[in-house]
Structure formats: structure tokens, C-alpha cells
């Protein structure tokens, strides 16, 4: 008996802890949010575009000219470039996804760009549409005035950019870059292949700069500064250095996209103003709260003491789900909130099934403790069946859906799984600790309900 | 809930009433389904831009909304094809056009606010290319097929054990019929709503249909399971009065069937009345689906089962 009470207390404390985390990690609910620990600060709810306001763009990538086995590479290169471009712009938490064509998703390669907080579509489109700039620069002649800044520690920092001067050679003349591993040292290196014009330009540059550095600039920042060993007439260059394989791969991706292997066209745009998003959030929270109150009222009026216990485990269910939304994190959309609200209703299904069984057992003359344990074990099959069908739907919807459907399927599916735990395990532990109230008339009243005789 | 407060004998009579007058209830369901299908064919589906492509722009004016006729005229001059202007709220308009690129989009905004003093805020802009719409349509159809197949497999699995006097595939078949009933009526309701209130068939509509499939199938299975459990407990198969056993099973399970649905309907109603605008029709459809899902497992599926058994006997 004591063990059960201790277990129930532990669950209560854990549940309260989870609720406390959810509460404290919300800026709106925590007055001292600015001074809160970084763990709390780093876990706000992640709101989808329809709630936070922002732009959702779908681009079609024309991969018809890319060999089939390189489509994946060029798409991720494209994504990297656009991601960096957006980061330069200072958008917080942008999402850039590649959607590969195929049997299920159909039509071709697509790039999906989510920009929270950006409601000026035109600006967003301009920002993404820019062609990445790849430049080759040579060392500035000796005696060129160099700019230097002095930082707060008193050290002079030479401005790298003033050491190099631009040449005519840019990413426009790059045919492609490939990743290779040195046969002897196993070191990764990056091969560049220029086109005809680029080959001539590169030959000239290397001829003039033997023994000096040639800097490769991407979007105005140097990404590599190899030293030229000899003139290179065939338009092939190798950048070797102390790369890790990942770095080298990244560089190849960037260089290839500098040459823009895949042209993109805008297919669809969606912008939601921040005001509309705010309304939706407030309405969603209100609906969730009222929905919860209705269900709690229903449970307590109908099932009395067990109903109260079920409401308590429903509270723990809600805390766990909200904490998971924060920790995973789950991007919440209006449809996602709907999924969550529906899962509040489904979560108590299992409790209703159990309590109805318990009532049946009580009626057939068992004592309260026995009725509870048989009720739980007999209701299990019905609970399993009613959850399986919901879970099937959620999984298929998640697998198929666009981001909107995914949000709904994810919150509903999570609700189904967590509710199995909360409604069965937690309610059972709580109820079993209540057996101390004995078998008197009052106890019988508390455990039966107004629904039946 | 005074409805539930009947002594056992009375409840039994009430339940047997359903079995006795099963043809009336089955007929009622048939009428509702036929009406839904009729409205579907008469009104047609009002397909939204999610599936057919197009653009939807919502603007709200700061002080005063311009007169619709004047805007209509200047919008016509843009040559965007058919432009539909709908007033929304106190100060807003929703503009429906074909899909727009960013140049056309800013042109549209300029037209909506011709003189600078009538400033507006763009609440939302949604432009979907026809190819994206086609892709989504394909996905939606595939999802409907897959989920229907998965649910049918689930039903087949749930009824895999042979039972007498009605063979198990008939249970499964009736479960599927009532599932069709549960989906058809909310769809009919939506079609009527979309005809009179302009609701559009969007992604959420498809999600609603699929979720109804998942939510309502379990109710029927729970009651059928009870029937077969009670049949098993009967010692002499020959003596079984099938309709009485169905009635007994219904009596044992109808309260919790209604209660489990009621909790979901409660939260759905909260979502409908207080939730975000974008999920209003979604919540309404699910409420209808949930309601008819429970209704059908008590008033359609079980009576159908008895009817099938009676036909078998006559043969």
C-alpha cells in the first residue's frame, strides 16, 4: 500500500515538474523570463507560419540537364546556397527543404522555403533569386595600402579583403566541381573544371601568380586561398588543404551551386500576416482550454471520484504533450492545434471504457478493488482497438502529407500514444491508492455514477 | 443526463425497440446517405485553390472599405481573368484570382489601394501554381485509397475469427457500409454548407474525411466484438435468438459508445466555436462524422446485422 502511495506521489511530482517546465519556458507566462536559464529560453513553442506569420515558397527545380545520379547532389547544393542566402538576410529559423520527385510526391524536384516573420513576399523572392557569386582573386601587388583595424585587445587585424584584387574569373566560367580523395594520403581534395573561357582566364591567372595565393571568394567572403604551384593550361584546378571530408564535400556543394547547376522557378507563394497568426493562436489556446474544461466537467459529473482521477491524469497528459512539443520540437500549426485538441477528447476514451467496465463489475457484486483491476484488464482490448485505427490514420497522413497535414497527423499521433500511457498507467496507479477509502456506502457512491442505476 | 437513468428492464426495451424497428432506422440512414449523394451531384464540390491552383489575397483597410463596384471595375482592368471580390469582416476583402507572380501580386495590391490615403494591410496572400495543386490532388487521392485499404485490412483482422450464425466477412462488410455512411453524411453536409456559405474543399477537408474513417470504425468494431463475445458464451448454438443477443450487446455497450464519442464531440465543439477560423469547417465535419459514427454503430450496423441474419434464415 505504501509503495503505491509513494509511486503515485512520485508521478504527481514528476507531472508537476513537467507542467512547471512548460509554464516557465513560455515568455508570456513567466515574468522573469529574461533572467531564466538558457534551457528554458531555448524551448519556446515552435509556431508554424500560419500562426507566427511569414512566407512559404515552393520552387520548382529544373533538373532535366543534370545526369540522373547527380540530381540529389545538385539539389542539396541548391538548398545549401539558398539557406546561406537566407541566413545572410537574418531570418530567424528559416526552413529550406528539398522535396524529391517520385512515385508518391509526383512532379519533379522541388525546393520548399519557409521564412517565419517575413511577410514581404517580394523581398523574400528577391533575396532567394540572387545568383550566388563565386570569384577568384589574386594577391594585391606589393605596396598596395592595406587597411587594418585594431581590436579591443590592442591587436592589429589585417583586413583580408585588401590583400586581394578581383580578376575576371567568376563562377560563371566554372563547369563543375567534384570531390576526390588523394590516392596516397587519403586526403580529400576538390577538383574544379572551367569551361573554355574560364580555362583561358585561369591559365593566365595561374601563369602570372606562380608561388602566390589565389583566393576563392563566395558571396564576398574568402572560402579557400590555395597557393599556385605552376601554370595550369587545361582548366582544371585542385584545391587541396587540411579539409575534413565533410568540409570538402560542403565546398564542392557550394562551388557547384555557385555555378548554379539547377535553375529554379517559383511555383507558389503563401504569406500570412502576423495579425492573422496571432488571432489563430489566441483562438487555438482558448478552444483547447474550453475543450479541456468541458471534458473535465463531463468526467467528474459522470464518474465522480474516478472521473476526478481521470481529470488529474488528463492534466499530466497535457503537460507531457506540451513538453514534447517544446522539446522535440514540434512545429505547431492551426491544424496541429486541432489535432492536439482532438487528442484531449480521445485521451479520456480509454478512461471512459475502463470506468464503464468497472461499473459493470461493481454491479455484478465485486468489491471496489477487484472491480478496478478486472475493469482495467477487460477494457484493454477495446482500448487497443479504438487506438489502432486512429494511429493508422495518423501514420498514413504523416507519411503522405504536406506540412499542413503533417502537423495534424503528428500531434494526433503523439496524443494517441501518450494517452495510452496516461489514461491506463497513471489513472490505474492513482485509483489503486484510493482503495483505502474502503467499501462503505460513501465509497460505493463515489465510484458509481449517475449514468446507471 | 436523465436519458441514461433507466432501470435495466426499461433500457432493454428501449434497445429492443431499435432492433424491432430496424427497417425504419436503416431506411433513415439510407435517406440521409442518398440526400448527401444527391446534394453532391446537384451542388458539386466547390474545389479550393489548394487543389486547382489560384491565388487568394486577404486585405483589411485601415479606416474605410472602398465600394465593391468601383474596385471590381479597376480589378477588371488588370486582365487577370475572372476576379472574385468578397467582403470579409468589417473592413476587409478577400480577392480570388488565378495564381499570381510577385509582379502581378504587387499590381493587385496597388489596385486595391489606388490613392495612398486608403491604406490597407495584407492579412494573407496565397498563390498556388496549378502543378502544385495537381500534385496535392494526386497525394490526396492516394492517401484516401491507402487509408481506406488500411482500415479495411484492420477490419478484416478484427473479424478474422469465424463466427456463427453470421459469417465473419459479413461483419466486416457491414462495418465498411456503416463507415461509408459515416463519411457520406458529413461530406453531404459540407457540400450544402459550401453551396450556401462558400466553404471550399481544401486540404483540411480531406484530412477530416480520413480522420472520420479512423475515429468511427472503432465504435462499430467494439459493438460487434461484444456481440461475438456474447455469442461465444451461449452454449447451444441452435437455441440462439440472434436479435436478442444483438440487443443485449447493444445494451451493454451503448452507454460507453456514446460517452467516448461525447468527449471527442465536446472538444470538437469547443474547437468549432472558439478555435481558429481556418479549422472551423474542419471541426464541424469531424463533429458530424463523430456523431454519425456513433449513430451508425448503434442504429445502422447492429440492425443491419440482424437483418442479414433474418435473410439467411429465410433462404
Largest sheet properties of chain A: 4 strands, antiparallel
For the record, the CATH class of the largest domain in chain A is: Mainly Alpha
**DSSP strand tally of chain B:** 4
* Radius of gyration of chain B (Å): 25 Å
H and E string of chain A: HHEHEHEEHEEEEEEHEEEHEHEHHHHH
Q: Give me the number of helical elements of chain A.
A: 13
Give the overall pLDDT of chain B as a whole number. 83
Description:
The complex is a heterodimer of chains A (453) and B (315). Chain A is α+β, with helices and mostly antiparallel strands and 453 residues long. Chain A has 13 helices and 15 strands. Chain A has three domains: 47-114 and 265-271, no CATH class; 134-258, Gyrase A, domain 2 (2-Layer Sandwich); 273-447, Multidrug efflux transporter AcrB transmembrane fold (Up-down Bundle), CATH 1.20.1640. The mean pLDDT of chain A is 79. Chain B is 69% helix and 9% strand. Chain B starts with 7 loop residues before the first helix and ends with a helix. Chain B has 315 residues and is α+β, with helices and mostly antiparallel strands. Chain B is built from ten helices and four strands. Classes of the chains: A alpha+beta (453), B alpha+beta (315). At the A-B interface, helix 5, strand 14, helix 8, helix 9 and helix 10 of A face helix 5, strand 4, helix 6, helix 8 and helix 9 of B.
Amino acid at each position: 500500500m505504501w509503495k503505491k502511495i509513494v509511486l503515485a506521489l512520485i508521478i504527481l511530482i514528476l507531472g508537476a515538474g513537467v507542467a512547471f517546465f512548460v509554464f516557465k519556458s513560455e515568455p508570456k507566462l513567466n515574468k522573469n523570463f529574461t533572467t531564466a536559464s538558457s534551457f528554458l529560453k531555448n524551448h519556446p513553442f515552435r509556431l508554424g507560419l500560419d500562426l507566427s506569420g511569414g512566407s512559404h515558397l515552393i520552387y520548382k527545380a529544373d533538373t532535366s540537364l543534370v545526369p540522373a545520379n547527380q540530381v540529389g547532389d545538385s539539389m542539396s547544393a541548391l538548398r545549401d546556397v539558398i539557406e546561406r542566402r537566407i541566413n545572410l538576410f537574418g531570418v530567424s529559423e528559416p526552413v529550406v527543404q528539398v522535396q524529391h520527385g517520385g512515385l508518391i510526391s509526383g512532379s519533379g524536384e522541388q525546393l520548399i522555403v519557409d521564412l517565419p516573420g517575413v511577410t514581404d513576399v517580394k523581398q523574400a523572392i528577391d533575396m532567394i533569386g540572387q545568383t550566388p557569386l563565386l570569384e577568384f582573386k589574386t594577391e594585391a601587388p606589393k605596396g598596395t595600402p592595406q587597411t587594418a583595424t585594431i581590436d579591443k585587445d590592442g591587436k592589429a587585424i589585417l583586413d583580408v579583403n585588401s590583400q586581394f584584387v578581383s580578376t575576371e574569373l567568376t563562377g560563371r566560367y566554372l563547369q563543375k566541381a567534384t570531390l576526390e580523395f588523394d590516392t596516397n594520403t587519403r586526403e580529400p581534395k576538390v577538383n574544379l573544371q572551367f569551361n573554355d573561357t574560364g580555362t583561358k582566364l585561369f591559365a593566365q591567372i595561374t601563369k602570372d601568380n606562380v608561388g602566390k595565393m589565389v583566393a576563392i571568394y563566395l558571396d564576398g567572403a574568402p572560402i579557400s586561398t590555395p597557393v599556385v604551384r605552376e601554370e595550369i593550361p587545361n582548366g582544371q584546378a585542385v584545391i587541396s588543404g587540411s579539409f575534413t571530408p565533410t568540409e570538402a564535400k560542403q565546398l564542392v556543394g557550394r562551388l557547384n551551386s555557385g555555378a548554379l547547376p539547377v535553375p529554379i522557378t517559383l511555383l507558389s507563394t503563401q504569406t500570412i500576416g502576423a495579425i492573422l497568426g496571432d488571432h489563430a493562436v489566441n483562438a487555438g489556446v482558448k478552444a483547447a482550454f474550453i475543450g479541456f474544461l468541458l471534458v473535465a466537467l463531463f468526467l467528474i459529473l459522470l464518474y465522480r471520484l474516478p472521473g476526478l482521477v481521470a481529470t488529474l491524469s488528463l492534466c499530466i497528459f497535457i503537460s507531457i504533450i506540451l513538453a514534447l512539443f517544446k522539446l522535440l520540437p514540434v512545429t505547431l500549426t492551426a491544424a496541429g492545434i486541432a489535432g492536439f485538441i482532438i487528442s484531449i477528447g480521445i485521451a479520456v476514451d480509454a478512461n471512459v471504457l475502463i470506468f464503464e467496465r468497472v461499473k459493470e463489475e461493481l454491479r455484478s457484486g465485486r468489491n471496489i478493488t477487484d472491480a478496478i483491476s478486472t475493469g482495467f484488464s477487460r477494457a484493454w482490448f477495446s482500448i487497443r482497438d479504438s487506438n489502432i485505427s486512429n494511429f493508422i490514420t495518423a501514420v498514413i497522413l504523416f507519411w503522405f502529407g504536406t506540412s499542413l497535414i503533417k502537423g495534424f497527423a503528428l500531434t494526433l499521433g503523439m496524443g494517441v500514444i501518450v494517452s495510452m500511457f496516461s489514461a491506463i498507467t497513471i489513472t490505474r496507479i492513482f485509483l489503486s491508492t484510493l482503495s483505502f477509502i474502503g467499501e462503505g456506502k460513501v465509497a460505493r457512491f463515489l465510484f458509481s455514477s449517475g449514468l446507471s442505476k | 443526463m436523465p436519458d441514461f437513468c433507466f432501470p435495466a428492464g426499461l433500457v432493454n426495451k428501449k434497445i429492443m425497440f431499435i432492433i424491432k424497428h430496424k427497417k425504419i432506422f436503416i431506411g433513415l440512414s439510407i435517406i440521409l446517405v442518398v440526400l448527401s449523394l444527391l446534394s453532391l451531384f446537384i451542388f458539386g464540390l466547390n474545389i479550393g485553390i489548394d487543389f486547382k491552383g489560384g491565388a487568394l489575397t486577404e486585405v483589411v483597410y485601415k479606416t474605410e472599405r472602398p465600394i465593391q463596384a468601383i474596385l471590381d471595375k479597376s480589378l477588371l482592368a488588370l486582365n487577370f481573368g475572372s476576379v472574385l471580390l468578397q467582403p470579409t469582416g468589417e473592413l476587409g476583402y478577400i480577392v480570388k484570382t488565378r495564381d499570381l507572380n510577385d509582379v502581378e501580386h504587387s499590381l493587385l495590391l496597388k489596385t486595391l489601394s489606388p490613392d495612398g490615403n486608403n491604406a490597407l494591410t495584407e492579412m494573407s496572400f496565397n498563390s498556388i501554381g496549378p502543378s502544385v495543386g495537381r500534385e496535392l490532388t494526386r497525394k490526396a487521392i492516394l492517401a484516401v485509397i491507402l487509408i481506406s485499404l488500411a482500415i479495411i485490412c484492420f477490419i478484416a483482422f478484427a473479424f478474422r475469427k469465424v463466427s456463427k450464425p453470421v459469417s465473419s466477412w459479413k461483419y466486416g462488410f457491414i462495418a465498411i457500409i456503416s463507415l461509408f455512411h459515416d463519411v457520406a453524411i458529413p461530406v453531404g453536409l459540407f457540400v450544402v454548407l459550401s453551396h450556401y456559405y462558400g466553404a471550399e474543399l481544401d486540404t483540411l477537408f480531406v484530412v477530416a474525411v480520413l480522420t472520420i474513417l479512423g475515429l468511427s470504425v472503432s465504435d462499430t468494431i467494439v459493438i460487434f466484438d461484444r456481440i461475438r463475445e456474447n455469442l461465444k458464451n451461449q452454449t447451444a448454438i441452435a437455441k440462439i435468438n440472434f436479435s436478442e443477443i444483438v440487443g443485449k450487446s447493444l445494451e451493454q455497450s451503448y452507454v460507453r459508445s456514446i460517452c467516448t464519442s461525447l468527449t471527442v464531440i465536446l472538444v470538437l465543439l469547443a474547437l468549432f466555436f472558439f478555435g481558429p477560423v481556418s479549422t472551423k469547417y474542419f471541426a464541424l465535419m469531424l463533429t458530424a462524422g463523430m456523431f454519425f459514427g456513433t449513430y451508425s454503430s448503434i442504429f445502422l450496423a447492429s440492425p443491419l446485422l440482424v437483418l442479414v441474419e433474418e435473410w439467411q434464415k429465410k433462404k
